[in-house]
Amino acid sequence: MPKKIAIMGAMPEEIAPLLDKLDNVTTSVYACNTYYEGTYRGKEIVVAYSKIGKVFATLTATMLIEKFGCDLLLFSGVAGAISDELAIGDLIIADGLCQHDLDITAFGHPHGYVPEGEVCIPTDVTLRNIAKEVANEKGLKLKEGIIATGDQFVANSERKEWIGETFKAHALEMEGASVAVVCSSMGVPFFIMRAISDSADMDAGFDFDAFLESSAKTSADFVISMVEKI
Ligand SMILES: CCCCCCN(CO)Cc1c[nH]c2c(N)ncnc12
User: Fold this and answer.
1) How many CB atoms sit inside 10 A of residue 149's CB?
2) What value of ipTM does the predicted structure carry?
3) Spatial separation of the C-alpha atoms in residues 179 and 191, rounded to whole Å
4) Residue 174 Cβ < 6 Å to ligand 1
5) Do the Cβ atoms of 120 and 141 come closer than 8 Å?
6) Which residues face 203 on adjacent strands?
7) What is the pLDDT of residues 172-222, one digit of tens each?
8) What beta strand segments (E) does the chain contain?
9) Whose CA is nearest to atom 20 of ligand 1?
């Protein structure tokens, strides 16, 4: 059965580069989100941005699957770099995602863990391999690593380093792990790609404002080019 592909972002800027690529677009509003249904190269696509943070991302990912019947989810957006190897504009795909602000360590549990949960949720290998194929064809560099998610914009080197060491994370953002929990709980293959907008340090706010649009486009252009191989 042909797949219905969800492409999700957190902010309008992260999906804007996708919308003018869709044909036969219809929009619907549901649970305070706008969903854009259309086709791309003959594939059925649903595009939406969640708004920022884990709670909004959980709602939108769930609706894309339960309400719109998507059976595969691609996330495109921007992130803060933890690894020194990641410069602004560089692409990273998640091989796993964790929640850096989930903390019941008072009971002896590791950071990011709650009972019946897992610290790091793996992403779909097939989709990661498709991304590597596309990167090779386009001669693009692609980093693969753990992405840490939390409900805070990190603009502090100390916090960034702690997240990097605690979770062996290469980048950080505010929605990916929620998408991971929803999709893995519902058996929906998912893929999280981010382009770096800042380095999660004292300059992060300025860099984010300066590079959001260009980095969001870098990520979106890459993700849409994966669709024809899915
Ligand atoms: C109006 C402000 C909206 C910030 C939204 C940032 N997104 C969240 O997914 C990605 C991101 C880019 N850089 C980040 C950072 N340093 N910390 C957290 N998240 C991020």
Assistant:
1) 32
2) 0.99
3) 9
4) yes
5) no
6) none
7) 999 999 999 999 999 999 999 999 999 999 999 999 999 999 999 999 999
8) 4-9, 23-30, 33-40, 43-49, 72-81, 91-99, 121-122, 143-149, 169-173, 190-198
9) 173
